[in-house]
Amino acid sequence: xxxxxxxxxxxxxxxxxxxxxxxxxxxxxxxxxxxxxxxxxxxxxxxxxxxxxxxxxxxxxxxxxxxxxxxxxxxxxxxxxxxxxxxxxxxxxxxxxxxxxxxxxxxxxxxxxxxxxxxxxxxxxxxxxxxxxxxxxxxxxxxxxxxxxxxxxxxxxxxxxxxxxxxxxxxxxxxxxxxxxxxxxxxxxxxxxxxxxxxxxxxxxxxxxxxxxxxxxxxxxxxxxxxxxxxxxxxxxxxxxxxxxxxxxxxxxxxxxxxxxxxxxxxxxxxxxxxxxxxxxxxxxxxxxxxxxxxxxxxxxxxxxxxxxxxxxxxxxxxxxxxxxxxxxxxxxxxxxxxxxxxxxxxxxxxxxxxxxxxxxxxxxxx
Length: 367
Fold this sequence. Notes:
Oligomer: single chain
Distance between the termini: 80 Å
Structural class: alpha/beta
Shape: globular
Order of helices and strands: HEEEEHEEHHEHHHEEEHEEEHHHHE
Number of strands: 14
Helix content: 25-40%
Radius of gyration: 25 Å
Number of domains: 2
């Protein structure tokens, strides 16, 4: 009997504790989007977009911009402006202007998101070409609320491998990993918001270059990240040394990537990529059934050139978003220790040999 009474008392205490900690949604400003940028004088600008739950409010979204010394300092300024207490537990997107991404030490502004357990680390981190304010204060009439619209835009594009989807926790892992450099989504606003591809950063998290959606698919394959769809549209020559171009679309399936590494005064990587493809569009006359081998060779040649061009672009910027440094550490650890703190420089001098093997497994219903 005493045990039952004690159990009831404990349950009552727990229930009372939960009631005491509860907070009405009207009393919380949920920062669904947080933006960071620099003004013309290099002062930190912090932006916030949050939903409004008040029935009397005509605008159902609140957007605020403040100047601050730190991100945590901006919360105090937000709380003096918005209707309720600011909370970062539901933040969906972290927008960072490329002007800030080019400044040394910008990653220190992310510290409260990693340190404060009330903040979420599943926030999508996105680079913005141009002022962050252009994106944050955009009010499209044919789209849902901006946080929902942008989150869905990134998620959908990532499923098609048009860009990467990098959350804060993954970004932290990429920046402390010496064997690869970070990559994040990138967007801009003209008449509408569009994803421009993927922003590639160096070891210090500084912006180096942007790759387009086609190059992002190649990046994901080299990273051995094969989830989602890989639709390609390329132009191929059908004759050896031919200059005539023919457009072809296909979906890549069953992709296999194997990389070997050796050290001979410099690093040498051999990457072998195999994939089955299904043709989805062909804008030229060609008998695939009788001459599939010729078409496969043309596709292989084109993809090999594209892979090598992307790798050389990264090497020129002294970055390694592919993760070749992970292979160097795993298989040549003695040599890796000597260059691990200057891996970007070492990778820029490496030879990367790419071999592509394509097998046509589907031609569509019309042969």
